Amino acid sequence: MDYKKSLWNGTNQSDIYGSYVNQDKFATVFLSNKTKCVRTYFDRIQYGTGINYDSGFLEIDNKRINNFSLSVGVLLPVENKAFSALNGTYSYGQKGSISNGLVKENYHKLSLNISLDGIWFVKRKFE
Fold it and tell me: How many domains does the chain have?
């Protein structure tokens, strides 16, 4: 679980559409492995799902533009001895609302990330 609070209210900013307010972000991720016994490459693949909620930092006519999304992903290991991995994620979310003349946005997001373990960049001392 993750929580983050951004203090936008203290910046004393505003724009023509609304005012900046303090923002709260909540995130939860669930990861699973196929098995605890790692014998093959497919045993090391991890699957995950996540839920995100963002209260929004912009307030228009006393209504916040919040954001809610669901994510699913897969983590593919790159090498046996290192912790490097390729991570692919799909997210679906909704931002805002259509009440009081505001705009609601539905979105789909694909992410592809690579994580390289630091051992890749260490020069070998012995061959």
Answer: 1
